[in-house]
Amino acid sequence: MNEDERNKNRMSNKVVNYVGFIDAPLNAKDLYPYNSKVGGSPVWMAQPPAKYSHIKCTECSGDMAFLMQLYAPLDHLPQFERSYYLFVCHKCNATRQGWKLIKSMERPRQGYNEYEEEEEEYDEDEEEEEEVQEKVVQNDTKNENGDDDDDWGVEDGDDWGLSGKTDNNNNNNNIDELLMKRDKMLKEEQAKKKEQKNNKQSTSTSSTSTTNTSSTETSPLEGFVTPSDPSNQYKECYVTIEEEVIKQQKMHGGGKGGKHGYVDDHSEMEEWSGESYEYVKDRAFSKFIKRINHYPEQVIRYGFGGEPLCMSQAGNQMFDVKTAYACKRCGKNKVFEFQVVSTIITQISHNKDVSSLDFSNLFALTCPNHCYDVGSDVHNDVIYVEELLLVEKSI
């Protein structure tokens, strides 16, 4: 994923829903740490703590498989890049203990600053060229209208070696000379900036190699992959993210209004409080199917601070107002951030013959304050926090 795609997929702090889809196979040499993907090995932002190099299930002590990573930056938290890493135990995946969700955060890398500088330099060059072009057009217009004033500081053409009256041919020659001079100045300025940039990069590279002569040279935008990673069990593919757009469905007749629009709103669950369990159960499943059918192949739903989409009434009860999941550090109730939909089960391919995953939805909850312990959660300048993952059982 390039920088433009990265910025395009940057997730808003507003409650906007996004959906993710499994895409093309991932290039094994792609070590970009801010990809969203399924399978393969996790691409950590930096070498993680030893406990994450070989993750074991807390229930059966078996090796856990890496299922996916999700790049999840937030506009209201620009000081951090954020990614999630999800691991599963095939024997215990029907319970919460059979899953592990790790959130990592780091400060934006120098590579992005260099990219932004290049963009700023490009914009400055564009602005300079537009200003010159505008002056040329103005000058050409004035000459056509018989105006002797010259925006280029030329009075009566004398400064250009011209005297007396000028005809149209002389005016055209003046414009040609101005254009040639403009082009020459732009080329000289661009060459100068390029030389300064090359000198700066040469100095930076020399300084880096002097201070880190024993280190392995890596791209500033490369992550870390654990060698001989036992969690590498699924086929590796990119995940693409896009905003969820729900089209209003028109229905005719019924009610005083005549036409009614179907609005898919989680709050409608409140209207079901007086209904029987079986009726509510059917309504919950119906709502889930209607929403999923807008994007049948979605495997991820994202909406920081939004509402989860449960398949069953039992799932809805996990998010009852009486049920709160507090952060152990600050005490604030955790908020919904994303869910993994069971549609992923049939879209992923395991390297070995193992038992299939068994769940309806996985819900990731995080602290709204993004808090962490400076002493125990930071390793190699990256923050690692294990977040809460709720499992909605299959129905």
Task: Kindly list the characteristics that best describe this protein.
single chain; alpha+beta; 2 domains; two-stranded antiparallel sheet; about 25% helix; disordered N terminus
Question: Can you characterise this structure?
Answer:
The chain is elongated and about 80 Å long. With 395 residues, it is an alpha+beta fold. Helix 2 runs antiparallel to helix 3. It has 2 domains: 279 residues, no CATH class; 87 residues, no CATH class. The protein is built from 5 helices and 13 strands. The strands form 2 sheets. It has a 10-stranded antiparallel beta barrel. Strands 7-8 form a two-stranded antiparallel ribbon.
pLDDT < 50 runs, ≥5 residues: 1-13, 113-119, 148-166, 204-218, 250-273
The averaged pLDDT comes out at 77
| Strands ordered across the widest β-sheet | 1-6-2-3-4-5-13-11-10-9
Please write the string of helix (H) and strand (E) elements. Answer: HEEEEEHHEEEHEHEEEE
Number of helices: 5
**Terminal Cα span:** 36 Å
Question: Tell me, what's the shape?
Answer: elongated
Task: Please indicate the percent range of residues in DSSP E strands (runs of 2 or more).
Answer: 15-25%
Question: How many runs of DSSP E, i.e. beta strands?
Answer: 13
Largest sheet: 10 strands, antiparallel, barrel
